[in-house]
């Protein structure tokens, strides 16, 4: 590998409480020559602690695009949009210059489908299903989806009582395997972290943690870019706005200021 | 019809140059008891005069959601998001309360498919095709799409030299009918206004103007809501963010201020 | 609106018992400047009181085509084929001249999908499902269909004991929402009239009555035709039989005589 | 084989000019213990000599259903609806009792796909494409269709100047193979008879004649019914109208009278 | 029919225990002028008595291709690959020369869909479902599949205790009809022979035995080849390896030796 | 990374001429702690120098499965099946124990779709298209495929005259971008090695070399397995044959002997 790979893990919420935990998880699992900046969107868009609603997603879109552009300008090789909806993945990819952008959902499915033919996604609320299903179908993975199984918890509850969460996630995963014939499980929220190993051990099928999945796929993408020149296409639907227009419209004039940054080397 | 229907036509760009023209077009074509407010997003998001790029779309998302919420609070029956990408249609629908939200693309296709089995969309640039195609497939109309035909003009050129535009649009539409077996034509940009009638007359197939289409479908939706109680579902994927959360996160605290408003009665 | 819109509501059965009720329903809900002729097929094809079977559909096809041609010649702007199978919709559209033809199923789905992302259809018998599902898939709405739910009643029972029907329709709709994650409900038979409001109020999701839906979509189509020239395409698959052939084959020589006509002004 | 198989080849037009030719073709190619009745619909529905339009199809629907019922009552084992649109195939199957109903399009595709992975259909006019494509997609064969190629002739011209027809069909088939990567060819009209062998010999790919295809598939179906009890399902969507209703509605009271019948033993 | 048709029924396992039974079944059901050679793959590939796993399928692929080539050289008109997975059907078809190759799954579905609109497949183990479903979707029949129903027996158990098997198959078929709305049933393993008639009689829907289905479809294909020249295409994806390459690579040098052959005349 | 990753790159042909070149390419591009064994199938299956035909694919299936089993027993973490058809990928995955199996086609597409929305595949001959298209559709990537473009060369010609090959590949890629609106290019044969960089530089879109793609995806998969326990599922369709059966049938008794092995450390 030629140089240090620079990756940003961006929680697309204005809420940094989990950043330290993600940073630890990343420290333990990244390659030695990868530098990861863990950050969130700062409180510019309100202190939403979740993105469960399309409304919340849309509310962070503007800032997310600015953040993407900023990360690209700072020379990051890859950006992780740290939410399982993969919000605005195609949009961010358009303005990312030479930086690759990945999302936890897409990353997790790629891994699950190298190990099995059908996966289920364990979600917090039935509410999430329609948007995630649309995204998965657009990726092309609709025929490989066994089911969604909801634990009827909201995002903020996942890390409150770990025993309850562990038990609910396990039961949902078990039902997905038994009833829906899932052959692998994807935990459908980045805040379902810390649980994959035990469920995997008990169920004896692959259980994918989306944050870890996106970290490793981001590293891989960054490496491929550096070594093979496999950087984002800028042709047709991937064409970025012209510089002249960006200047004329006064876009991106101010530097985007991320939330507190934890740099993991 | 029980009362005056209140409709907002919102140009989702921070650029009001065309508002007067749209207002005139609307004045001529609305029902007598409809009141339409024509407005744009104000210059909050830069003076972009087009939304050709996903980047630009995402840049207006936050404001668009706030605008939607504001329009809903002001008691509008229906909101038109005045761009053929139908940007953030599902997102806006989530936060729209009892207000129905429509987009020009969806509205135009509904009309075209009552009059024909296959339609083509005349777009400005090949760049647009992928996003529009994804949207059309998600609506379910993919199998009824004959083709996209691009005139290789950007949004701002459409209204510069009307003869050139008229000629290019006609040629593209003619090719769509002859080569791609389109049976109807949709003009794939709200700024392709003013041309549909002549092309329709010459080609002898329905040619749908997306702004007019969305105006009339909005009126229809507003009417149905008022008279049959057919207002937006708030179940499952349509569930809106809880009021308590909106308050806690401090969302929508400030009233959204639209750009200059032309009120058409 | 330029003139009086002329619409025909045609019950495609040789049985006029419900015509009065439909006429009342229409009177209450039409625009003031719409004139609607409510009629049925006369007893030419037997006194079938339902179209539950493909056989019955096919048995009325010949007359339906003649009726369509006649309505077109009489200058109607739009024709409603008053059966939820939308029988011979594309066929009737071919011979309808400048008259737009709509069906209750297509009309209802358009309304449901402006208000929700997934709908269920409440049908009388499982028997109906395959044909309706095929039609819905051909329209392109297959991915938006949550489910069919059958109340196991035949068409003629719907209006016998209103309490029983109301209760069965409500239960089926409730199950569709709870179990199948429907976000809106469509009553899948024109004879399920009179029930939508109460179910809507109790379930708090949109419940679409197909007759009303088709009436209003017909008015809208008629209006658009009159004001924007958006009349049926006659290109490619929409091409009508040549006049010379019609004459040579002796088709439509005799005037089609509708059943008793109730004219609602 | 237990007994003589009885098959009806029904030209669903009120025009018997080609019956003799079909009878000869059938005589040459049927099994020895098959009895085929070649007939047409009589002139009841006008003297249409083609079914190119949906209108014409619908105009013969009522009679076709009556004919089907009659054939079933007369004890035929299988009925061929002799038009490449396979008009009202599913409808006729509903009322066919123990008689199997087949169509030339479905029959031809089954044969083509045992010999190749992709087929093209040579049609008379572009007009036909949409309806045939819908039917083929509903059968499930959409992904195996390489293309339609039109020779721009109407049905009645096929048998006028055989040299011209042969030349046009060959050229269209050749283009389908070369340009559209067809691996087999289906002649998309029963009146394209008499040409398959030469094209097959010259092009060296299978060229399927739809009348012969339907004859042989009908014989096969008849045989399977007789020997294995594989007769039409009457469950769910295949349920036939109840006898009581048929009686009550006065359907099928009069015996259907076919056109002149040529009995081929 | 011009001559004796020569057909090979090949059990693609190195295990001949059932050959005699198949031979009897074939004797009873073939046309009089058909000669069928019933054989298996000899023990070259181990004594596997089933092909339930992809592994087993792949293990017989090489020999199956050699067997196909050999059968073609021996002048067979059609080859039946006697396993419901239709293993390597497209591959065998490539090297089969003028011999048509059919499989029990494809053959059974063709028959079921002439008699009904939806079928279910009764399989031995859930394990089989994914591969069979993929195959059925590739054929194009995915939308006509009501369900798979598993009896949780392995292949070798089917013929052990006939009462148990009969009872399990019947119950699964009954559930498929009642719960999944199947209108016909396909027994999803060639070793489910001997049961179709009773289930058919009790359930009153078509129940297709896959061995019989493939026998009759093979005879039909052989007949069509002989009489109409409808032999395998060798164009594009159907192109066979060039003779020169086969020679150069030393393929098919040795004659393939089948297992014991039962010749049924 | 915990330990040395062991990967096998297996050319699934009995022909080792290119092994040295692949070994060099791998040496240059692998991670330092990866050990790669480059080998081929030995001449057991004839000296085929390509797998262009389904026949050739099937001919190597048996040995490929044995090779997979052997590699798994030798403790490899990942196996690359070095042919762009990804032959028998799902089959090999079934018997691979804890070893992950990847193919060049699947690997390349994953990379292309992180950098673009539409890709084209540059193939040697039109012959290949059908099989590759089927595979790509089964993976789920069908809607992201812009086109296949054939250079009309066979596999063995790619490395004969590099200038000719370079020129033909470039022209095909350029046409794919210009005409088919591809946004990235995949070289559709492992023997198209050595060309990606120059085409990428000239065309300015990502051009994916399938061998390199599969090498890096194999390393990634091996790493994920080692560090997160993400090894192949053995549930449902992924269930492997029972050990008892393998023993009883005498499968895999003899150790599979690979061709000459080049070990790259």
Automatic annotation (TrEMBL), chains A, B, C, D, E, F:
Q: Into which family does the record put it? A: Belongs to the HyuE racemase family.
Q: What is this protein called?
A: Hydantoin racemase
């Amino acid at each position: 590998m030629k140089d240090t790979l620079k990756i940003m893990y961006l929680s697309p919420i204005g809420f940094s409480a989990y950043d330290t935990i993600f940073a630890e998880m990343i420290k333990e699992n990244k390659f030695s020559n990868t530098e990861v900046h863990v950050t969130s969107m700062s409180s510019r868009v309100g202190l939403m602690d979740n993105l469960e609603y399309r409304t919340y997603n849309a509310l962070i879109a503007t800032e997310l695009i600015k953040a993407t552009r900023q990360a690209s300008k700072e020379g990051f090789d890859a950006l992780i949009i740290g939410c399982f909806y993969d919000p605005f993945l195609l949009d961010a990819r358009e303005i990312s210059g030479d930086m690759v952008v990945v999302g936890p959902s897409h990353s997790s499915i790629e891994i699950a489908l190298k190990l099995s033919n059908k996966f289920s996604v364990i979600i917090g609320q039935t509410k999430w299903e329609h948007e995630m299903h649309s995204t998965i179908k657009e990726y092309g993975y609709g025929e490989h989806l066994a089911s969604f199984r909801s634990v009827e918890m909201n995002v903020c509850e996942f890390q409150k009582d770990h025993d309850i969460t562990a038990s609910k996630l396990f039961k949902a995963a078990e039902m997905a395997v038994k009833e829906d014939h899932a052959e692998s499980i994807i935990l459908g929220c980045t805040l379902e972290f810390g649980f994959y190993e035990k469920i995997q051990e008990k169920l004896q099928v692959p259980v994918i943690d989306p944050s870890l999945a996106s970290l490793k796929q981001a590293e891989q993408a960054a490496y491929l870019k550096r070594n093979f020149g496999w950087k984002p296409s800028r042709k047709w639907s991937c064409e970025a706005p012209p510089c002249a227009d960006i200047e004329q419209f006064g876009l991106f004039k101010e530097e985007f200021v991320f939330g507190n940054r934890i740099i993991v080397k």
